[in-house]
Amino acid sequence: MYKRIATALSFASLVLGQQIGTYTAEKHPSLPIQVCTARGSCTTERTSVANWRWTHATNGYTNCYSGSEWNATACPDGKTCAANCAIDGADYAKTYGITTPSSGALRLNFVTKNDNGQNVGSRVYLLASDTKYRLFNLLNKEFTFDVDVSHLPCGLNGAVYFSEMDEDGGVSRFSGNKAGAKYGTGYCDSQCPQDIKFINGEANVESWEGGLGKYGTCCAEMDIWEANSDATAYTPHPCSVTKQTRCEGVDCGSGSDRYAGVCDKDGCDFNSFRMGNQEFYGPGKTVDTSKPLTVVTQFITADGTNTGALKSIRRFYVQNGKVIPNSKTVIESVDPTNEISEGFCEQQKTAFGDNNYFKTLGGMAQMGEQLKKMVLVLSVWDDHAVYMNWLDSNYPTDADPSKPGVARGRCDPEAGVPETVEAEHPDAYVIYSNIKIGALNSTFPAA
Prior knowledge:
mainly beta; 1,4-Beta-D-Glucan Cellobiohydrolase I, Chain A; seven-stranded antiparallel β-sheet; ConA-like_dom_sf; carbohydrate metabolism; polysaccharide degradation
């Protein structure tokens, strides 16, 4: 993933405060998951989701943030702003287009008209309880879910991923954060996003310009699924920091400092199209995105234990009752493989002429350590930075698409321009369902 833009949501005041408001009660949409020990032996865990939302002055309905500017009265500095601004419960369906069409299913609409104008995109986090995120140790486990991307066109990203967020959303570490996981606070990812409005219990007010602040919020990230109907990739992103961390300056890895920050923004991606098989994924392809499908990701350890070193990350698909192994690489100087491993990453980076910052920050070994305490995130978004070209088109766009690693999908480079995709596909959506975590080969039918 090259950039995740929180400001892709155009709802004017979509920003997290750190106090708790009193206008609307919070009611989390239910999203139960299953925990499996063997095939046919699964139990249901009652989980739910929380998202980001509106913030306002604690003494009324005045917005703390509008358009791209902070309210100077409520927010003269970060600490004061956190004390002055509150968040209330959310109307998930009406305001954000987040619904649960059936038990264990979550639908995220792309554009939702509401009383405040419209909301574009959404992001939710899985909760174990009313006040704590559900933590996952993925080592020696597999993670499985069903997804329908048939209504998700070029330029959009329906993402399922894990981030090394605090279990309580940051309440215990940061005194300025009173809202915690219940209200969807404490976000971080490997892009160290600087558009997040509140970080470490303080507003990101300082040097705020063009929707970006002085600080970013960093943590390791495992992208299980970044996809639309034309392209998909799964990508580990290790970091040198081992928990949600506020960055500034070079540590954020912005611009020319991309390969000097605390996180690996590029990661080590496996995109079947980019890896040489252009007929594997898409409408009518081997994995047919015109129909729902099951995605299985396995985290293999060297010694077969839940604490062992991460050896590889494997992918399977299940569709129409058939188990489909991930496609194999068809790239010169990359050994044929259909999984992510240290050797694959080394060869891929060399073949594509990419900076192997993945290795610099510890590679698979570091990623494995960070997979022990992850929070599940589900989202749909469009890309204001590079139009999702890194996922489904040619990237860089001015490079020769015949050069290894440049072509990543069949999409037109302009298809993901936010103004275009929001106008032409406001009714786009993604549905995630049947989420399972369990022992290897326990969550999907045998081949």
